[in-house]
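Lesson 9: reading folded outputs for more than one chain in a single document. The general rule is that every protein is listed as its sequence immediately followed by its structure tokens, and records are never interleaved. Here is the first one.
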Amino acid sequence: MFDNPTPYHVTVVALAAGANRAAQPLDPVMVNPKSTASVPFSASAAGGLFVTHVDDYGGQVTVEYACDGNACRSVKR
């Protein structure tokens, strides 16, 4: 489940999991402002979760998340 607490649309285009960043099948999904979107995937995120989204300029940005149980939080850099 992706939670978008921002006032902006977020388009998620790729998902990878684990220390080796194994790509996960994903149909791109747009998460509306201040809403959630369910995106199931089967891989373990024990080594981290890497979510790629489209930025305001059309570029792709990958953000690392640390997961604990069913919740993942972005890793600040």
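And here is the second record, again sequence then tokens.
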Amino acid sequence: MFRALADRTRLRIMHMLGGGELCVCDIVDVLKVPQPTASRHLAYLRRAGLVVCRKQGLWCYYRWTSPKTAFHEKLLESLACCCQDVPQLSRDSRRLPTCKPDCCR
């Protein structure tokens, strides 16, 4: 799990998903990265057991997994708590509301 969170882009994604489920297009819009790059990072997080994917038609929606252990639960709590003061993550959070709602539904 720590390796998955050691990458800045994946940490940004996890922080955004802390607010709830997002479509890949929302993540791409906030991060300003190509869709394949975002999908590669999301796949890494999925393999690490940190996020789950829900497909709806052509679109993939990601969210945090439900904690399976006390360690996993504390890790997610720490992520939500400690990242609030990181400037880049705060900017990402402010950009999320500007994403077009239902852009891919």
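What the second record shows: The two ends are 31 Å apart (CA to CA).
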